[in-house]
Structure formats: structure tokens, C-alpha cells
Amino acid sequence: MREMLVTCRPEVTLSTKMLLKLAGNAEEEVAAGLAEEVPIEPEPSAEPLAAPAKREASFAAPPPKKPKMTKREFVDPDAWLDEDLGEYPNSIQLVSSTDSESYAQLVEEASQATVVAYDAQWSPDFDEGTDNQIALLQLAFPQSGNTYVLQLPLL
What we know:
Number of helices: 3
Strand order of the largest sheet: 1-4-3-2
Low-confidence stretches: none
Oligomer: single chain
Helix content: 10-25%
Largest sheet: 4 strands, mixed
Distance between the termini: 61 Å
Shape: elongated
């Protein structure tokens, strides 16, 4: 319909004149074979509509209107590209045993962290019905700059 009205606006106010123009365009498209007319058949058991019942005088209050959105300050999504990243990570530790010192450091750091980045890796599932388990889990803590590589099958 927006194409027929030559507009890209999301909402279009239709007038009687515009509806007649659209109907005329639709008839021309049907005549040219570009569109198909769909006949509307009344349902055999359809009864005539009854007059609407009178509403009671006590109505529920309409819901409150939502506050209008305020304009937000523009934030350039590419601004971080101009900044140099620090020397990250500070350390990379391999965790392959729950008895290791690296595991104890990981548990301590994870208990205090507010942000954790992660990456999981596993062998690909080439055959139908296979579901390979996660083999490596990498946890990075941006505040400290520490990264831990967990070898899950060994834990």
C-alpha cells in the first residue's frame, strides 16, 4: 500500500479520496492481470449483527499514558576505535586440575568479579547424533587483566 501511495512513512492517514485511488489502482492491476480479485463469500450460518448492547455507566479508568521518550545524548559507537588498548591480558594461566594454584586464584577472582568474558571451544560435530562436550573454557577478567584457560576434561 505504501508503494501505491508513494510514501515510506510508517503510518499513513487515509482519506476517502486516497482509498478510492487505491481501489482504482487495484482494479487496474486486476484488469492487467497483475493481481487477482479475491471474492468474499458470506458464511452460510452468519446471522445479522445485533445492535451493540448499552455499556454500563461505570467504566474502568484508562491506563496512564507512558511518558514521552527524551532525546538521548549521541554516543559514537566507533569512538573506542581511536583509543589504544592496554597490555591485555596481564597473565594467562592454564587450569587443568582443581588442586592447582591457578584454580585457587580463578575461584578467588571469580567470586569478586563483576564482569567476566568467556569463550568456549569444542571439537566439531560432523556426524549426525554427535554432541561433543566443551573442551576448553576461557575466562577473562577485564578489571585485573587476568585470563584463565580451563581444560574441562581434566577437571
